[in-house]
Amino acid sequence: MLARRIIPCLDVKDGQVVKGVKFRNHEIVGDIVELARRYAQEGADELVFYDIAASTRGETVEPAWVSAVARVIDIPFCVAGGIKSVDDARARLFAGADKISINTPALQNPSLVDKLAAEFGSQCVVVGIDSREIDGAWRVHQFTGDPDKTQEANRKTLDWITEVADRGAGEIVLNCMDQDGVRDGYDIDQLAEARALCSTPLIASGGAGRKEHFKTVFNQANVDGALAASVFHKGLINIGNLKSYLIDEGLGIRP
Amino acid sequence: MTVGLIDTGCANLASVRFALERAGIDYRVAVTPGQAGACGRLILPGVGAAAPAMNQLEASGWAAALRRDERPLLGICLGMQLLFEYSSESDVACLGLIPGHVERLPSSEGLVWPHMGWNSLDIVEPENVLLSGVENGAYMYFVHGFYVPTSTFTLARAEYGADITAIVKSRHVYGCQFHPERSGEAGARILTNFAELVR
User: What ipTM was predicted for this assembly?
Assistant: First the structure.
């Protein structure tokens, strides 16, 4: 049976792991390699690294720390942050990343999704979507690494999910911005609507605060994985305990 | 024994290299068959699509070399699929070392495509040395949209809308559909078994 995935997300800024609330006020939570090793040992199924400063500053993630992570962990991981071309993606994949994720660059140049899928295969290509409700519709946002530069992308979230899947995205991470960092539960309504029209793997992001939130998002939104950051960084939820709980609740989980 | 790691220009070479280093397995990266002359066994990694990978193997001389080589060989993911006769992904002839065809995984109602994530092994041939110390039901990391249906050559299977060959063996040729280099301790065990136990 295919297991549901538990995915710690590490926001990276200036070579350190940081965490903010609703994308603001970032504080340093630790060293990239040390946290990656710790989460892999605790039973994380996959890791995601977002270089949150890269896209807003016009930089790309550093292949050097990608390789440092790839050397120490024995689970898959994805890197994101300012990847704007096939060459940018190749450098990260050849440094040892299993997948690359694009967000703002896909909005600015949607054909990048097609090019990456053709070059590396859909399984390597994740599209991250930052979404927030405005005037009764979920809308995509871009440049979310810096609150002062964040702007609406003039796209409805559900339309954008369909488009990137058609263009060859192999996985979609839907980050519900209004829930980010507030630990009040995932946005079940939005994720369930996304699930209904999304034929690729879908990862929920934003809002995890208690173990029950993971159970709810798997059971009610039927997502393939659940991503979380602060609850793991702050030690509020231990991954091993979370997995035991979900197994007891009858969910298919890798022990 | 030194493992020759075949470099086809595919993107997961670094992951496999690092996994071999963590396991303490001596290896040499080999772009051409001559560079693996002193190696006792070979690993063919691979992610991407079948046609460009086969073109690369033909151009480097590895395709012809692998068709006559008798050293133990382990194909990983796309590298496993290339061991078979034919892939319906881009309609291409493969190495033909194991009988069988590569087909597209069905994308049926309620089942997302591709097959991505940790899935459990149903071990068919537990006595094979490649599976020594690997428990039935162990989870491995799969990422693929095409698959090989199970056959008499299947050592372990996995279920995802189809009966998937997870581990295969024919003569000296082995293959894993999943990524042992990214499958935790159980995956590392398979790499170590291949390096140390397979004859």
Answer: 0.91
| Catalytic site includes residue B179 | yes
Provide, as residue numbers in chain B, all residues whose Cβ is less than 8 Å from the Cβ of A42: none
Catalytic residue check, B181: yes
> HEC profile for chain A?
CECEEEEEEEEEECCEEEEEECCEEEEEEEEHHHHHHHHHHHCCCCEEEEECCHHHHCCCCCHHHHHHHHHHCCCCEEEECCCCCHHHHHHHHHCCCCEEEECHHHHHCCHHHHHHHHHHCHHHEEEEEEEEEECCEEEEEECCCCCCCCEEEEEEHHHHHHHHHHCCCCEEEEEEHHHCCCCCCCCHHHHHHHHHHCCCCEEEECCCCCHHHHHHHHHHHCCCEEEECHHHHCCCCCHHHHHHHHHHCCCCECC
A127 — pLDDT class (breaks 50, 70, 90): very high
**pLDDT tens digits, one per residue of A115-125:** 999 888 888 89
pTM for the complete prediction? 0.93
CB-defined contacts A:B, below 8 A = 97
Residue of A2, A98, A124, A161 best to disrupt the B interface, most CBs of B under 10 A: A2
User: Which residue of B77, B143, B190 to mutate against A (max A Cβ within 10 Å)?
Assistant: B143
